Every structure is written in structure tokens, then in C-alpha cells.
Adenylosuccinate synthetase (Amblyomma aureolatum), 454 residues
Amino acid sequence: MSNYINNYGCPNGVNGNNTIPRSMSWSPAEPKSRANVVLGAQWGDEGKGKIVDLLASDAQIVCRCQGGNNAGHTVVVESVCYDFHLLPSGLTNTKCTGVVGNGVVINVPQLFDEIKANEAKGLQISSRLLISDRSHIVFDFHQAVDGLQEIEKGSKSLGTTKKGIGPTYACKASRTGLRMADLVGDFAVFEQRFRSLVSTYHKLFPGLEVDLDAELTKYKELATKLRPFVIDTVSYLHEALHQGKNVLVEGANACLLDIDFGTYPFVTSSNCTVGGVCTGLGIPPCAIGHVYGVVKAYTTRVGDGPFPTEQKNEIGERLQTIGGEIGVTTKRKRRCGWLDVVLLRYSNMINGYTALALTKLDILDTFEEIKIGTAYRIGGKVYKYPPASADEMYRAEVDYLVLPGWKKSTSECRKYVDLPVEARRYVETVQELLAIPFKWIGVGKSRAAIITIP
């Protein structure tokens, strides 16, 4: 057996699988396999977890590449509901190894709380989890600062989750943040840098309260717990792909929350688009295979920001109630509206989707008519793609295509031909407008409530 050791003195690591051989053949050739990617195509909460759960049944490695515990994925397996915020939701496949990549920002206590909560439901995780030594740490004071910044903005708040994600990415960009390698390395160096970082924040926010000694004691204990999980995941994934292993990447948040391409400034602080897979895991573009976009059959959004097809009326309330649109992470009601093809065209331009998954089609079962937003009108000009300015998007008037509803239950349908004619017309209309094929259609919460289109 090869002699494996990670950089932090843990021979053989977790199950002997999370470490890298001392001698490794680094080939410039293309990998034998490519990582398949699942991304949210709207503003999040599209049901990515369900599609990941489906694809993870064949995967050997499942990865998170960006975001933090501001994300929320729910997967129902045999009537047991698992909630994931930091961990890859594909871990419901008990044969998978989970990788939390360098692009993820990690609240360490909440990571262990999440592991504990899911293991209490019978899902063994600890022996199958790897964490990048380059991932940044979210501290309690990051969360406190997040809340203070939102209060300062007053009526112009961005509606963040107040999980400390933005301040942590800001530390990363300003090169003052602390990474897993720092925490599990020389703790004296970690302590020095931690004290310096807190001092910087105290100057910016004089009222910020941090018990330095208590925090350092806590993180010294956490470092011991973390050490077996932390490895160089870049070389681990490189080797896995060159060995032909099946790797699945699950994006958090969604395209329209991307720091560059989303409805800025009402966005998250990471790249939720396909480029974030490369930078958040350290894999090259040639190692990416299929890119699947997940689209809810209508549109939802949590928090503030422009939402052209939002229905602030009885229709929006029905979508919210029937769809159970409550945020997994924030517990806030989601804003609801009709499907927006303008945004989806743009989302596809950025991500180049191989195919789409349409989720929650069954939520539209009771509607007399269903609308699809096809273009915006702003100041007399027609837009087929969203403008960069949030102010302009607030002023957008939407051109709608109106289709008849089907007024029949789709929840028991398991083949495409079983869907009502009007439901198929809706699916095919969206497919034609986007010029992207649908591969899956979700018609319910359960694992079985999905139609696969050959």
C-alpha cells in the first residue's frame, strides 16, 4: 500500500483516502474523467439538491466550490429530510467522499453542528469528508460585522443572510483573512494573526465585542478536531480526475447572485457561475464536463433587489403558499413571480448549460393561466437580456407570453408523456425560448417525483 500523509501530520487521514501520495505522477495530459456541475440558474432555491441527489448516486466524489452556510439545500431520502448548508448535499450517497473546496468560506462550529445534525438522522459523514487547506474561516465577529453593516445601510440594506459571508470574502480579498492551513498549522502564528485581524476590526467598528481569550481557546480545540479533515484538495481532485473517478460539483446560491454577473449590489460575495468551479476547486476548464442548470418553474427571490416578474398580489401569495417558499437558511418568506426567460437567457450565456432541470412544475397545477416573461421594456427600449444597473431593472416592465394552465395534478407523473398536454406545452415553450433541452422535470418533493427525459 502506498504511504500517504497529509501536510498536518495525519498519516492515512480519514479512512486513508483523504491524503496524497508522497510520490505522484503529474501528467499534463487531459484527465480521464471530467467533473459534472450542477448550478442554480436563477436567484437560488431552485431545487439543486434534488438534482444533485439524483446524480450523486453514480458519483464517487461530491464537491462544494464556493459560498458558505448562507446556502441551503434540502434533500429528502426515504422520508428523512436532510439539510445542508456547508456540506455537499450529495453526501446522501453513502459511498461518496465529500470535498469542501478552497472557494468555500467555513464557519467551523456550524460545520460541526451540521455534521452532528445529519449524523443524528443516520447519515454517516465524518469518515467521508475532506476540507481544503486553502478555504477561509468565518469567525463570529464576521457575522457581527455583517449585521452592523446592514444596520448602517438602513432602508438601503442588501438583505444579506447576516452569516458573515461578505466580511469573510472581504478579508480574503484584502489578504487579511485566515485559512484552514493557518488554523491547523502553528497555532502561535494563528493566534498572532487572529489578534491582528480583530484589532483591525475594532478600529473600524469600535463597539464590536470579541472575547479574544475565549475565542482562541475555542479555536485551539477546534484545530485538533479539524486536523484529520484538512488536506490539499487541489492535488487530491487532480489525481482523482486523472484516475477517471466520477466527480460531481454542486454550486451554491445561483447565477443571478454572482458577485460579477448577478443583480449587483443585491448579490452574494462569491462567483456562483461556472467560473467559480475552476477557481473554487483548482480544476482547469478542460476538466469540466456537463454543466446542468436548475430552473424552478416559476421565479423566487429571498431578500432585497430587483425582481421584474414578481407578483405582489394573490398570484404571488398562491405560489408562496403552495410552493412552501420559506428559506432553508434564513426562514424568510421568498418573493414569488412568473418564470423570467430574460434572466435565463443571460444565465445560459454565462454558464453554457448542457441541459436544464425544471423543478416544482407541480406547483403550477392549479393555475388557470401561466405567464412567461420574454422581454423587458425600460424607457421605451426592449431588452432581451437584463441591464447591468439594478436601478434600471427596478424600472423594467415585462412582456409576457400567456399560456393556458392544465388544472390537473402532475405529482404522480413519471414519464414525460404522462404530463397533461398543456404542461408539456409549457415545458416545450420554455425549451424553445431558451434553445436548451430539459433533461429532468421535478413534480414533487420526494426522490421519486422526477421525470427523466431521454
Notes: The chain has three domains: 14-20+29-133+229-292, 137-225, 297-452. The chain is about 30% helix and 20% strand. Residues 187-204 form the longest helix (18 residues).
